[in-house]
Design goal:
By secondary structure, the chain is mostly helical. It contains 10 helices and no strands. The protein is globular. The N and C termini lie far apart (50 Å). The relative contact order is 0.14.
């Protein structure tokens, strides 16, 4: 077993222990999804990753959980003092998890990948940034919800960072993009607590559902580009 595998197992064990120990009067009524969200927003990335990874096994309709698992992995990769090899492995896992959600049509993951690849700056990464930028622009799901993680100015800025030539090449790749819905997977028995519904008297938001790619525009159609 490699050092990274051992470290990951220890993080998972710590996460499950933390989940059990933090069910105090403040969060006792939370659902598994809310507990994972609480962990993510308080910087407990190990717990958040365990929870959201479990929830994402339900497949289509749980893209937000898949996205949040990627964010948790990225948070772990940036842990202070983490050996470079382990940080690189966690970052690669984060990109893989975000890509699964992005390919399933989750716009937040597409936007996250635009920023990630643009920051790397090499030609291959810029091409990936352009690819996901085109797909993000074409994705109307956030617009329908009144949300825009990358506003017009940010989209223009990333387009300039990527460059006109690479953007055009990426546009051709984006034309061939087809959504790949998340597939449900078998969950470990240890995932059972994360599927809890919590206190039925609590008012909470259900995770956004991913249904179809209806409303998706193709590159070159009105409203697609800048």
């Amino acid at each position: 077993m490699t050092r990274f595998t051992i470290a990951t197992c220890l993080l998972a064990a710590t996460a499950l222990s933390a989940c059990a120990s933090t069910r105090d009067s403040t969060i006792a009524g939370m659902s598994g999804y809310e507990l994972a969200g609480h962990a993510l927003h308080t910087g407990d990335y190990a717990t958040a990753h365990v929870g959201f990874s479990c929830i994402a096994t339900r497949g289509s309709g749980y893209e937000v959980a898949q996205h949040n698992a990627g964010l948790a992995s990225m948070g772990l990769a940036q842990s202070p003092g983490l050996p470079a090899e382990d940080a690189a492995s966690l970052e690669a896992r984060a990109v893989e998890e975000l890509t699964l959600a992005a390919r399933a049509g989750w716009p937040a993951s597409q936007a996250e990948l635009v920023q990630y690849y643009a920051a790397k700056g090499d030609p291959d990464s810029l091409n990936m940034a352009g690819f996901w930028l085109w797909n993000y622009i074409a994705n109307n799901r956030e617009t329908a919800l009144g949300i825009r993680r990358l506003n017009d100015a940010e989209r223009q800025r990333y387009s300039e960072i990527i460059g006109e030539e690479i953007m055009e090449a990426a546009r051709q790749d984006a034309l061939e993009f087809r959504m790949t819905p998340l597939v449900s997977r078998s969950a470990s028995p240890s995932c059972a607590p994360w599927f809890s519904q919590g206190d039925p008297n609590r008012t909470r938001r259900r995770p956004p559902q991913d249904n179809t790619d209806a409303g998706r525009q193709q590159p070159g159609q009105p409203g697609y580009g800048y």
